[in-house]
Design brief:
The protein is mostly helical and 128 residues long. The protein contains four helices and no strands. The longest helix is centred in the middle third of the chain and has 33 residues.
């Protein structure tokens, strides 16, 4: 559990930097619909990460205390992604689907990249 609590601020920092770059590009470039869609997807992805971490910590604390928890909120996270998709499809003048889905996936790219970098770092430490 400690590892998850330690990684979340780092992921939050990476995601806020990505959001800031998206807002910067939204303001500078003419592709507003593309960046609005990316922003919505990235925001929903960040919310889903925060929600999952919060629920996982609660489940872990409940397990340590001998209590039971119903779930880690998979239905809620899926519902937010479905809601973002519905909004995107209902307002094509403001959003497009592919950048929104890419925005949803950015958090997973961040997690996998961080994992790969930590593997390389651990491998190099073992070589010494």
């Amino acid at each position: 559990m400690f590892e998850l609590e330690k990684m979340m601020p780092k992921y939050l920092q990476y995601m806020l930097i990505i959001l800031a770059v998206e807002v910067l590009f939204w303001g500078i470039l003419d592709q507003r619909i593309l960046f609005q869609s990316l922003l919505m997807g990235t925001g929903v992805g960040l919310f889903n990460l925060w929600f999952m971490v919060r629920k996982t910590i609660k489940v872990g604390n409940a397990a340590v205390g001998g209590k039971k928890m119903a779930s880690i909120g998979t239905a809620t996270r899926m519902s937010t992604a479905i809601l973002a998709t519905i909004v995107t499809l209902n307002y094509p003048q403001y959003f497009t689907i592919i950048p929104m889905i890419l925005g949803l996936m950015i958090i997973y790219i961040v997690i996998m990249t961080d994992f790969a970098l930590r593997l390389v770092k651990d491998f190099r430490m073992k070589e010494r």
